[in-house]
Amino acid sequence: MANVTINFIEQIIKKDLEEGANNGRIQTRFPPEPNGYLHIGHAKAICMDFGIAKKYGGTCNLRFDDTNPVKEDVEYVDSIQEDIKWLGFQWNNIYYASDYFEKLFELAKRFIREGKAYVDEQSAETIAQQKGTPTIPGTNSPFRDRPVEENLDLFERMNKGEFEDGSMVLRAKIDMAHSNMHFRDPIMYRIITTHPHHKTGTKWKVYPMYDFAHGQSDYFEGVTHSLCTLEFEVHRPLYDYFLDQFAGADYRPKQREFNRLNITYTVMSKRKMLALVKEGLVRGWDDPRMPTICGLRRRGYTPESIRNFIDKIGYTKYEALNDVSLLESAVREDLKPKAARVCAIMDPIKLVIDNYEGNGEMVTIENNPDTPESGSREVRFGREVWIERGDFRKEADKDFYRLSPGGREVRLKGAYIIQAIGIDENGVVHATYDHNSKSGTEGGNRKVKSTINWVECGSAVDAEVRMYDRLFTEENPSAYEGDFREILNPQSETVINGAKVEACLGKAKAGDKFQFLKVGYFNTDYDTTEGKPVFNLTVTLKGK
Ligand code: ATP
Ligand code: MG
After folding, report:
1. Ligand 1 atom showing the smallest separation from residue 227 Cα
2. Distance in angstroms (rounded) separating the CA atoms of residues 316 and 13
3. Is position 270 annotated as part of the catalytic site?
4. Mind giving me the DSSP string for 126-146?
5. Each residue of 485-539: pLDDT tens digit?
6. Could you say which ligand is closest to the alpha carbon of residue 478?
7. 476: phi > 0 → left, psi -120 to 50 → alpha, else beta; which?
């Protein structure tokens, strides 16, 4: 086998295994917050978390980081599971940060008793103002030295619902002058009474903050390698600090960070995606233009293509912006041998073969020349066919190789050679054919300069084809200073009604994938109804 290089996280894992760390145990987790649908950025984390466990004989659990009921919902819990499975991964167990609410609450009280936490009654704004800057120390809260008993009493009452949301918080008492801003008495708990929790209902009135929940959850579960994205690097010392306050010396989870996935012409923020969905600017979370996993699935992306893309871009310690064309070529590459090649006429014009007699016949067309075992199919041919409007020109032109009156001979793909006569007052193109030129017969070997697509009129099926382009006009929409709605591409979706497609496409089922010859790869949409298929452009045959 080729000498495959492994990424820096894998190097750490290998070293830990060699040194017998954690008794040779490898345990990871994927910790989404159920506040939106997964996107391709999450796929990068998923491939890492599940991939490491699989490759190195470890386990990976799915943990819902459900500590903020204001934004979370079971809809997201369900979709996240569906998307992970679709990507080809399976968790060992499902856990919820909310499973640990009791334990975390007890732990918080232990912190209070040990003089490491206090209830602060200042407003969020005041607390923020007192934070200082990296070079200017913060200011101590006047509530910082509250007696333990008072803190305990207030914290219990915070959780009984005696105080309003935002009226007080529980803060860790660390160091308001610490060089790491995250150590300046970070908030451990906040009051949320306005929204019931999707799992625990109204049982809790206080909820732990990320920093007081994540490392603890990792520890409770036995996670050895807590892998996350670079923005958490500055949180790592706090992650370790909280663990040091209560964890045993025998075992510690270790946080490691890799770079986030950012893709050109796309936003990866759940907040912006939610806005697009809520404001009806797209068809939903699974709109084929969305970078969500369900959007990519509806667009026609395969799990393999996404995994191959992630594999190709790799993991580093530096933020980057990856070109969307890499993602596009990954799906092209994956579909090329898989998708049957069929004729679909996007902008049809009728062509009548004046010298063709009889009721038509069947011609045999290969399903995919790249995959001979995919066989062939019989396609109806006859006197009247639909061709692309652009394949005919009224005026002959020496640089135009397709149909024009008195012009060159052209082969109808997999059928006969024809020559155009002209176009009548109804806009119908007339042609004659060479009955000795049928593909697959001896006369079929006669070569002409060009081949065009066609669909026989009597058997053609009307289809809706949704053509897609980039959702944003800016290469790096996240860096745009104005409102991101201003840079939405108005041409990101174009619906073609009345495309004429081969008869076999009338039976296409949602998720069936095809190559429309000369156009691109298409996925059958679930909006398809009996006899009226709907197709989504996955990607054109060639990149931009
Ligand atoms: P939010 O914007 O709500 O904070 P998030 O994008 O951080 O959301 P989470 O659900 O908290 O999403 O993320 C779950 C995991 O996926 C985290 O470990 C996070 O690091 C990882 N992740 C999120 N976005 C990306 C991305 N663009 N690239 C790689 N990993 C990501
Ligand atoms: Mg997050």
Report:
1. 18
2. 15
3. yes
4. HHHHTT--SSS-----TTTT-
5. 999 999 999 999 999 999 999 999 999 999 999 999 999 999 999 989 999 999 9
6. 1
7. beta
pLDDT, tens digit (0-9, with 9 covering 90-100), for 460-499: 999 999 999 999 999 999 999 999 999 999 999 999 999 9
Tokens, residue 351: 């062509």
Eight-class DSSP state of 128:
H
The DSSP 8-state label assigned to residue 487 in this structure reads G
CA angle 185, 209, 225 (to 5 degrees): 100
- 408 in active site: no
Sign of CA dihedral 223, 227, 233, 235: negative
Nearest to 362 by CA among 500, 503, 463: 503
Q: What is the mean pLDDT of residues 133-144?
A: 97
pLDDT at residue 3, rounded to an integer? 52
- The single residue of 10, 33, 121, 366 carrying the catalytic annotation is 33
C-alpha 482/C-alpha 366 separation (Å) is 51
And the tokens for 110? Answer: 């232990």
pLDDT category of residue 407 using cuts at 50, 70 and 90: confident
Closest Cα to atom 17, ligand 1: which residue?
Answer: 228
Answer yes or no: are the C-beta atoms of 230 and 317 closer than 8 Å. yes
How far from the centroid of its chain's Cα atoms is residue 137's Cα?
Answer: 41
Backbone angles phi, psi at 477, to 5 degrees: -55, -30
**How far out from the chain centre does Cα 146 lie?**
48
* Ligand approaching nearest to the C-alpha of 34: 1
Q: How far does Cα 425 stand from its chain's mean position?
A: 49
β-pair partners for 229: 258
Look at ligand 1, atom 15, and give the residue with the nearest C-alpha: 32
pLDDT number for residue 543: 82
Report how far apart, in Å, the C-alpha atoms of 423 and of each of 353, 387, 428 are: 12, 13, 5
Question: Do 514 and 340 form a contact (C-beta atoms < 8 A)?
Answer: yes
Contact call for residues 428 and 350 (beta carbons, < 8 A): yes
Residue count (the chain): 544
Confidence of residue 396 (pLDDT cuts 50, 70, 90): confident
Check if 205 is active-site.
no
**484-489 contacts, C-beta under 8 A, 24 or more apart:** 484/267, 484/272, 485/275, 485/279, 485/281, 488/281
* Residue tagged 């809809």 (tokens): 75
> Are 411 and 439 in contact, with CB atoms under 8 Å apart?
yes
Strand order in the sheet with 206-208: 117-120, 169-172, 187-191, 206-208
Q: Is 29 in the pocket of ligand 1 (CB under 6 A)?
A: no
Write out pLDDT tens, residues 333-350: 999 999 999 999 999 999
Phi, psi angle pair for 379, to nearest 5°: -125, 135
For the stretch 39-71, pLDDT in tens is: 999 999 999 999 999 999 999 999 999 999 999
pLDDT of residue 406: 84
468 phi and psi, to 5 degrees?
Answer: -120, 145
Whether residue 1 is predicted with pLDDT greater than 50 in this model: the reply is no
Reduced to 3 states, what is the DSSP secondary structure of residue 228? strand
Among 109, 157, 260, 338, the active-site one is: 260
User: For residue 360, what are its two tokens?
Assistant: 């038509």
Tokens matching residue 377 = 């199919």
